[in-house]
Amino acid sequence: MSSISKPFYAVIAGVGAGTGRSVALRFAQAYPVVLLSRRPESYNPVVDEIRQQGGEALGISTDLTDPNSVKAAFETIKRELPGRQLAAAIYNASSRPSIKSFLDTTPDDLSRSLVGNAHGLLNFAHSALPLLLSSVSATPAPPYPPTLIITGATASLRGSARFGAFAAGKFAVRALGQSLAREFGPQGVHVAHVIVDGVIDMPLTKGWPANGGVEDGKLNPDAIADSYWHLHTQHRSSFTQELDLRPYVEKF
Amino acid sequence: MSSISKPFYAVIAGVGAGTGRSVALRFAQAYPVVLLSRRPESYNPVVDEIRQQGGEALGISTDLTDPNSVKAAFETIKRELPGRQLAAAIYNASSRPSIKSFLDTTPDDLSRSLVGNAHGLLNFAHSALPLLLSSVSATPAPPYPPTLIITGATASLRGSARFGAFAAGKFAVRALGQSLAREFGPQGVHVAHVIVDGVIDMPLTKGWPANGGVEDGKLNPDAIADSYWHLHTQHRSSFTQELDLRPYVEKF
Amino acid sequence: MSSISKPFYAVIAGVGAGTGRSVALRFAQAYPVVLLSRRPESYNPVVDEIRQQGGEALGISTDLTDPNSVKAAFETIKRELPGRQLAAAIYNASSRPSIKSFLDTTPDDLSRSLVGNAHGLLNFAHSALPLLLSSVSATPAPPYPPTLIITGATASLRGSARFGAFAAGKFAVRALGQSLAREFGPQGVHVAHVIVDGVIDMPLTKGWPANGGVEDGKLNPDAIADSYWHLHTQHRSSFTQELDLRPYVEKF
Amino acid sequence: MSSISKPFYAVIAGVGAGTGRSVALRFAQAYPVVLLSRRPESYNPVVDEIRQQGGEALGISTDLTDPNSVKAAFETIKRELPGRQLAAAIYNASSRPSIKSFLDTTPDDLSRSLVGNAHGLLNFAHSALPLLLSSVSATPAPPYPPTLIITGATASLRGSARFGAFAAGKFAVRALGQSLAREFGPQGVHVAHVIVDGVIDMPLTKGWPANGGVEDGKLNPDAIADSYWHLHTQHRSSFTQELDLRPYVEKF
């Protein structure tokens, strides 16, 4: 990305074929974007897609659950995008354990959810927040308030039967998000949490019969990305901390 | 408005110098807008402003608490905008009683809040919803899903001491909004409720020392309007039912 | 009730064959109780039952939606129970409009719900709160902190499709309850709101197939009354503002 | 405890000088109680106190964050209380990390909170739930529905600035609690979560100036225990899943 001339960039953690990809494509219309996923197979197709559309993208293999891996990723960013400021950081990673009875839920199941959801956010935000804070007063000024957006789910608000481990991880992420919003909002960083309440339309869910298979019964990830972009552009006098997104036909 | 050629329009109920004005100006960039307020002094300056910017606007004196007055307003709309479809309806009216001890809160105080908030929404939505439903399948298709947006407040979520009557009205509005979202969402109409959590920056609040007088410590109503517009443009696979808006420095 | 010797009493508004009756019977184990219902047919059987069990009870025909009727009822109480202090006031009245589409919900439907739920509470609490406040520092001291308990429902928390008018009234009641708790709690009066989430087992609901007709699939009103009594007995260092009650098999 | 003749017992995890002690004393009025704490210094004084009052108590040194330690504790219980049925299990353990900026919150801080709160509950409930389920249909029948009560805090509902790690752990516990309630409620086990919103009056907090030092401005743990006992006694047709407890003067 040596040719990048724009002074700002965005970083998206957790990029696959769904929301992460759409968010990356959307933010790439405005910024160079850095994509963090565990495996290159996850981000490479998106990097290619962005480049084909004339955008700039960099993929970095990152284990978000490992603080050192995340630190190394941000070192790479610093080296590859020298002198650039972080405009937006999106935490879209999630770890969803199997759905099963509480009695079959092992400590490992719970750990994987807590680490894959909450520790991932902690690690990511530890690196991203100092950069976002520094962007608040950067010269030139950022086009919009520096932003951290966190992807939540139905399970962020509700512990359903057989979803205990997953809900524990998502509740914990929401707790961290609220705490970050209250600590860093007054310093000019916008922290928002998005409740995605429904099935996302992506290759993985192709056969899922969400909402009886009705058209638009699954969330279009490009539509999700539009709302992420809107959150990023909100004026600091009017920040959203939390919003929900769901298909028009979703029961709630 | 005889020269209006666009096939869609928006209607905003409760237009004064704050959120209503900004929303009207924002939606007037895309649609002819109809402004409903009790007194012409409230909407006339906004109508003028929209026209000066090349937009189309019509003000109608309407008592939202009176079903017949609201019906008459929509009759006028039908006559003045023949053949046009309703794209968006914004309920921004509010009735805020004095803040006082419960023991000093009269049945009239409570009535004014319940009628001025909840009955106003009932009356407005009674006329707007059939039009929004008809727009869902209109030809040509509407640019975005037909939308009803309702303005809420901190008191929509929390009954503070000495705010009982106000909170009762705002809670009731939120109840209606949820009920409408669940009934009409599956029919294609997007119903959203916005929690405005803070002081809005408008002539009335000029001297109010919100958030210690810090810059952007009050909600810029144009910023609010940007989020209303975003809600209107959301794809039906990804509707927001509720979001909050507050200044970056607001305690919450 | 001229023979009443105990210095405290309780008043229950909204007494029929369900929760109100059970609460009256439960509180009558400790206090003379006053029962307010619109019609004598509603409270007379409960008054008889209490007397048969050795308790003291007084029924007063009261229209809770009419401030003057409520004032008259409390005048009667003052006359009939001279020198006695109010220990607990239970607001169990409710007005449940028909469940129907929003488009068929008339302003009258909404009014009946708002008046029958929220105005009823306002009127009742206007008379009860000064008495409860006076009991805080009465001599002899009350056995428990003076208490106002309000009956809520699923619709207090959630505006379902076709339940708009009912939810509006119940949301408004909850708003008032929170406001009262925050204003009068620090003055020593305990204000609690109970979410009854399910069908109550009473003559009216005999044939209702709640939870597939399973045993205890409807709320036993005596069990509800036990929780009301517990709320009343809570120490002022540990007040509950809100709790939910639902059958073990209820989906939520 | 070889002389125990009652067929039921209760187990309390997390017993020190505050809520755990009071809950143990309260439940010891009805059942033999087993107290689990990491160190004997925590439970020994409570065991002594219970015995002095004629109750039966057994303390077991248990590391709730270690599945094997918890399993071993329940093996001990099985051996020491042969043929007895579990009537109530109270999860009162908590791990509260230092309050500090997110940027100073280490992965270890977060881990300690997640493990000390959520894993502790998982481990405890893994052993307790099968016993509670078996008690549902035990002969003789249990006096009340078998119960699991979980202690929460303000941070269970709200992620405040500088409380991120603590809130993450408490949110995760609440998620598990909801999931357990929804899975095991229909099987007859009552799972309740208690939001303790305020400072508890105990040796540790003696000098804390809660609510300006006003009398009863801190939660009396005996009062908390009364509400736990009430939860345990609720009829299965009328279970509370969540309630809040706070001093009458607490701001909320």
TrEMBL record, chains A, B, C, D:
Protein name stated in the entry: Oxidoreductase-like protein
Gene3D superfamilies tied to this protein: NAD(P)-binding Rossmann-like Domain
Organism (species): Chaetomium thermophilum (strain DSM 1495 / CBS 144.50 / IMI 039719)
